[in-house]
Amino acid sequence: MLIKKHQYLAFVLPAVFFILLIIVVPFLIGIYYSFTDSNGLRSSFIGWKNFEVLFQDSTFLQSFWLTVKFSFVSVILINLVGLAFALIVTSHNNRLTKSLRTIFFMPNLIGGILLGFIWQFIFTSAFQAIAAAFHLDFFKGWLSNPSTGFWGIVILFVWQMSGYIMLIYISFLNAIPKNTIQAAVLDGAKATQIFFFIKLPQLAPAFTISLFLTLANSFKLYEQNLALTNGGPYRSTEMISMYIYNTAFVNFQQGYAQAAGIILFLCVTIVSFIQLALSRKREG
Amino acid sequence: MKKSTKILLGFLFGIIALFWFYPFIIVIINALKGKRGIFQNPLWFTRDFTFSNFKTAYQALDFTSSFFNSLVITVASVIVITLVSAAAAYALSRVKGPFSSILYYLCAGTMLIPFQSIMIPLLSLFGKVNFLNRTSLVIMNTGLSVSLSIILFYGAFQGVSKTLDEAAALDGAYPFKTFVYIIFPAVSPMTGTVVILNAMKIWNDYLLPSLVVNKDGMYTIPLKMYSFFGETNSQWQLALAGLVLSMVPIIILFLLLQKQVMTSVTEGSIK
């Protein structure tokens, strides 16, 4: 053994310290919190009451289902757009496709708060101008209506994430051996046949990765939600992260909010284990 | 493929790209106008043209100070994260045993926990000892990022042959020296990935800083942008100029390091 015990500890202890202090300890305290009526100052143990009340709380249930609906819709759209972009930029290798790659990826660089404000301007001012110029009511008042407000967040998120997911598909597309495709072309395969019979099967692992990456990210979405609609009108576009934040730091029901946080954790964990099981199954 | 279809496809792709890029364009165009110009036509340039919004926004955002706060917090966090996680990952990759496996699974496990599920106890923990400032933000950023970084580094160190360690040991080098001078430099592409991934995340973060450093003199760019937006009272030309200023640093950095950024982002999600 090259590394002695005390040296080993010197290498790993700083990391262990940070993980315990910032994640493990707060997580354990959090589990306790979720069984209390803590308001940040005082707290007493109340058993399962928070969870019982949560499942009757229409604001919570609404934000929960909104998050599920949002995740479902955005996962599908982001993956479709991301895959389409990946196919576009890998179709040729020239200056145009190179700059397309950059442009498609760029929204991903910008933080959620800035993105939310950019799209707030588009949905209010720009859409209003389009509505007035072409007499289209479709473009009117997008953020003052619960259903179009929801789609507004979806559009923003698709704009932000598609370029990111594109990169994952590109790396898997590039891993397909060139001579496989050349052989298919020599055998007279059409572009659509090459896509469905050669490229698509090779992309299976990319689908799993991208699907769950987008799913996890949409479950945790907060900043975009805050800057675009701030949950409005009337908390109708408030997703679960914002619900937790508002309950804890605006209404000071910290124990209650933490119970919602535990539910969020359980959802993300279940989703991750399904992903793990799926990719294990394919490999094994 | 025929030349005409090729040109047609190129044209189609160009339109899609323009459409995708338009949100950036519309922000820049309207940041260069007065209030009246935006009202007349927010979709394109009008005769109302001015640079003055940038000056107002720069002062209102206290941009020099918020920029440096963002920079100091990001750089400090990234340095600590990189050193701490590289050291731990090195030991994990060289010493196999129950403690190493436990630690590896601890990293994988803690990655599952969403920040929203720990933010309330985390904040009350640090609030109780009255330790909410830039230093504690760096500590929190580190705790939240080491797990993924260790797993990334672990993969890279596995790829470095142990004969290198053995040769260095024969030459009389201590493990610490071997790590600093031989093994760590050998994984510099992965170091680049870890630095870029964490820097992007921390630079753009809003939720955690809003809970920890939301006070005068400590504001980061996203924090200041959020409060400035509330103050502009639908004077979009000012808000948009502020947005342009806030986006400029990261876009410039991206254009300089384009290839590296895109490889890092891909690697960070696939591994």
UniProtKB/TrEMBL annotation, chain A:
Signal peptide start-end: none
Membrane disposition: Multi-pass membrane protein
Record's keyword terms, sorted: Cell membrane, Membrane, Sugar transport, Transmembrane, Transmembrane helix, Transport
Localization, UniProt: Cell membrane
InterPro entries: MetI-like (IPR000515), MetI-like_sf (IPR035906), UgpAE/MalFG_permease (IPR050809)
ABC transmembrane type-1 domain segment(s): 64-275
GO cellular component, one term: plasma membrane
SUPFAM superfamilies attached to this UniProt entry: MetI-like (SSF161098)
Spans through the membrane: 12-35, 64-89, 109-130, 150-173, 194-216, 256-278
One Gene Ontology term from the biological process aspect of the record: transmembrane transport
Family: Belongs to the binding-protein-dependent transport system permease family.
UniProt protein name: ABC-type sugar transport system, permease component
